[in-house]
Design brief:
The structure is a single chain. The protein has 84 residues and is an alpha+beta fold. The protein is built from two helices and four strands. The chain is elongated. It binds zinc ion. Zinc ion binds next to loops. The site of zinc ion (ZN) has 8 residues, from loops.
Length: 84
């Protein structure tokens, strides 16, 4: 279940009617509303719109927190306390 949701969320290819195939898509920010953002998906083959997605404020926060959970740097380990 959660796997399916994750795949929907990060859709990078969608079926294009013109190309008659699943094509890689480009995400474009279409509209910004106070409580959500609307993204348009453009086919990279013919540049036609193949879909759109609405991201609510809650989803956006979740995506941001997920992105932050991929640290490039190792977490700073607390320095060991040495008592002499
Ligand atoms: Zn296309």
């Amino acid at each position: 279940m959660s796997q399916q949701q994750f795949e929907n969320f990060t859709a990078s290819s969608l079926y294009c009617d013109k190309c008659k195939a699943a094509m890689p898509v480009r995400e474009r920010l279409l509209l910004i509303l106070p409580d959500k953002e609307v993204y348009d998906y453009l086919c990279t083959g013919c540049a036609s719109s193949v879909g759109s997605r609405e991201v609510t404020a809650g989803e956006k926060l979740m995506a941001q927190s997920m992105a932050k959970r991929r640290p490039r740097r190792a977490a700073v380990a607390p320095a060991p306390r040495i008592q002499l």
